[in-house]
Specification:
Chain lengths: ~260, ~425
């Protein structure tokens, strides 16, 4: 996979404070095109806040956001969308009563002569779902009729309607079964193969190791290392997440290792 | 995938899914067979999954007509059926407004009072102050739009539940209606004036009713065939021509049957033309325009709609304005029907009948599901019952009880079908 040297999205020293709580302190993050970056960390580490700063929900206090190497201001969700950042939130935000096509184009319907161009929308929806190898019963049934996995892939496909450069997935597999998780992970790989930068938030280390290229660890609102997945052990990442590199267990292990020598 | 943790494993996974993709039809997919057989199959599947559509209400109408014809012997006469179309116009227009509000998953209890205010304003302006009747009617509708905007503002911006806002409206606008009417008890419509004609004018020429029937059938055929062709050209599954033909035949039988019946009496009523026109236009707006899609989206999931960039507050306010505006027009028709405007117009069971009609016709109380056609179907059911009981000379107290039972039955059907749809995963 060819990766350009300039990251499509880069955060430089981003800080964010809510009242008395310093949520993010000098966080750096880089996403290249065609790369999956997993963002991991304990609950309250600042993952969601970091994602929301990228998505424009919370403007940053300090630091800068660079888009393809040039600094940009992201203060509203529309700014992020205009740049080409699409976010799929944990609660999928699909309308249950509308069919798949209507959900995919919700808020940006194709209109011709004052009326909805259903033919064009259905055609594009089918093309998009086909290229992503997403299989759902019919594009014309209400979303309520779909399984959890199918709803998740529809939500992700919806993010792709606007041709984004970077897709942020917030816990896409949290509520899914094994087979459905596999479907979503397949989809994440296809996004990468299409040259999109993907930021994947997940608590599931197996998922992360299956699809991610880099793992960026957040701990208490600060960077705690960025690891290439291929060459990093599970334990290293876990200890970066928990900050457990130095505790009773590791000390005893080290002592045991010494005595057995 | 050079940076992959387990490249070999992952790539085989991708390959197997890719090679499986173009394989034969996935048994889980809902692929509809072509032709009439496929249509029947789809119809059965919908029935099983609790998606009843208009079937219960159509069956109900046939039952009601048969029963009352058997009891009274003069229910299915041209004169009586023609009268029913006159009675349904006013409350039916209010009911179309109710459908809009119900689609949001909200309720508007003030529409009866709004209809009353509108009739009062129009009557007082034109009769007591000599304002041009058309201008007076327009001012009345504008006043109602302002009222709707006020309701919408308190609901969408302040966050007061719509139930409470419109309950307050029910009382306040009813008071305004009395205040506007002042000491006058009733104001009779100007003979042969605009308001008087609304519900009493007939296109006596037989060509009018038949022409309207022909236009509807041809209009449906052309639209359906063109739509199917553009879908086929785009490579999408389209309605088979046989199905379109069948629907057109059914529509033709209904339309020409109605036209024939109306021509047996006084001709095509203006009120029916207006009501049908409003239903068709609002149905188009709801199902075929971006605005209608927004209304359904807000009714189906407020948060999803907001995330999709839809201005939820604006949609809500606009829907309350539409419902109040339609209620105002309905109020003018009711005044025309009664022959006068008074302090009681729009009170009593007008509002309840309008809400009942929308629900009986198949619009869900739970939001996000429904059509404006349900206002027409439901109003026909209610008015048929009322007319039938009137013919039999049954007192109003009994009528109230029967209408109440029908409303409860419709809501039960709505709740049960909603549950069936959930359990079969289609809803």
């Amino acid at each position: 996979m060819v990766q350009s040297d300039i990251p499509v999205l880069a955060l430089r020293g981003v800080s964010k404070r809510f009242g008395a709580v310093q949520v993010l302190t000098g966080v750096d993050l880089e996403v290249h095109a065609g790369q999956v970056v997993a963002l991991v960390g304990d609950n309250g580490a600042g993952k969601s806040t970091l994602v929301k700063t990228i998505a424009g929900v919370h403007p940053i206090d300090e630091g800068s956001i660079e888009w393809s190497g040039r600094p940009v201001h992201v203060t509203r969700p529309q700014d992020a969308q205009a740049l080409g950042v699409a976010t799929v939130y944990q609660d999928l935000a699909l309308c249950d009563n509308l069919d798949v096509v209507a959900n995919l184009f919700l808020g940006r319907e194709l209109v011709r002569g004052g009326r909805l161009d259903e033919v064009a929308m259905e055609k594009r929806a089918k093309e998009l779902l086909d290229t992503l190898s997403i299989r759902i019963p019919s594009v014309r049934i209400p979303v309520a009729a779909l399984s959890g996995g199918q709803r998740q892939v529809v939500a992700i496909a919806r993010a792709l309607i606007g041709d984004p450069k970077v897709v942020i997935l917030d816990e896409p597999t949290a509520a899914l079964g094994v087979e459905q998780t596999a479907q979503v992970l397949d989809l994440v790989e296809r996004l990468r193969d299409r040259g999109l930068g993907v930021i994947l938030i997940s608590h599931n280390m197996a998922d992360v190791r299956a699809v991610a290229d880099q793992v960026a660890v957040l701990r208490l609102g600060r960077n705690n290392g960025v690891f290439p997945v291929a060459t990093t052990s599970h334990e290293t990442i876990i200890s970066a997440i928990t900050g457990a590199t130095d505790n009773a267990v590791t000390r005893r292990q080290a002592r045991v290792a010494e005595t057995t020598k | 995938m050079s940076k992959h943790a387990t490249p070999e494993k992952a790539s085989t996974v991708t390959e197997t899914t890719d090679s499986a993709a173009p394989a034969a039809v996935d048994p889980r997919l809902l692929v509809r067979e072509q032709g009439l057989a496929g249509y029947l199959e789809e119809f059965k599947r919908k029935l099983r999954s609790g998606d009843l559509g208009s079937i219960p209400v159509v069956i109900g109408l046939i039952l009601i007509a048969t029963i009352f014809q058997a009891i009274t012997g003069n229910f299915l006469t041209a004169g009586n059926l023609s009268n029913i179309t006159l009675y349904i116009a006013g409350p039916g227009l209010i009911s179309v407004g109710i459908v809009f509000v119900l689609l949001l998953g909200e309720i508007d209890l003030s529409l009866g009072s709004v209809a009353g205010v509108s009739a009062a304003v129009s009557a007082v302006l034109s009769i007591q102050h000599g304002v041009n009747e058309y201008l007076a009617a327009i001012l009345a509708v504008l006043a109602a739009l302002a009222i709707g905007a006020l309701h919408g503002f308190f609901f969408a911006k302040i966050g007061v539940p719509a139930f409470v806002v419109t309950l307050a409206g029910l009382l306040a606008w009813s008071g305004l209606q009395g205040y506007v009417m002042g000491n006058t008890g009733t104001l009779n419509n100007i003979p042969n004036g605009f308001i008087a004609n609304l519900d009493n004018y007939f296109f006596a020429d037989v060509a009018a009713a038949y022409g309207l029937a022909a236009i509807s059938v041809v209009g449906y055929l052309v639209a359906a065939l063109l739509g199917a062709r553009s879908r086929r050209e785009a490579g999408l599954p389209a309605k088979p021509v046989s199905e379109i033909a069948l629907r057109a035949v059914v529509l033709a039988v209904l339309a020409f049957g109605a036209a024939y019946t109306l021509n047996q009496d006084r001709g095509l009523p203006l009120a029916l033309v207006v009501f049908l026109g409003v239903v068709v236009v609002t149905d188009f707006v709801l199902r075929r325009t971006a605005y209608g899609r927004k209304v359904f989206a807000v009714g189906g999931g407020v948060e999803a709609a907001r995330r999709a960039g839809i201005n939820v507050a604006r949609v809500r306010i606009s829907v309350f304005m539409i419902s109040a505006g339609l209620a105002a027009v309905g109020g003018l028709f009711i005044a025309s029907q009664a022959g006068f405007a008074d302090k009681q117009l729009g009170s009593g069971n007008v509002l309840m009948n309008s809400i009942a009609a929308a629900v009986i016709g198949g619009t869900s109380l739970f939001g996000g599901r429904g059509k404006t056609w349900s206002a027409l179907l439901g109003m026909l059911v209610i008015q048929s019952i009322v007319t039938g009981l009137d013919l039999q000379g049954i007192s109003q107290s009994i009528q109230y009880m029967i209408t109440g039972a029908v409303l409860l039955a419709a809501v039960v059907l709505d709740s049960v079908s909603r549950r069936t749809q959930k359990s079969s995963g289609r809803g």
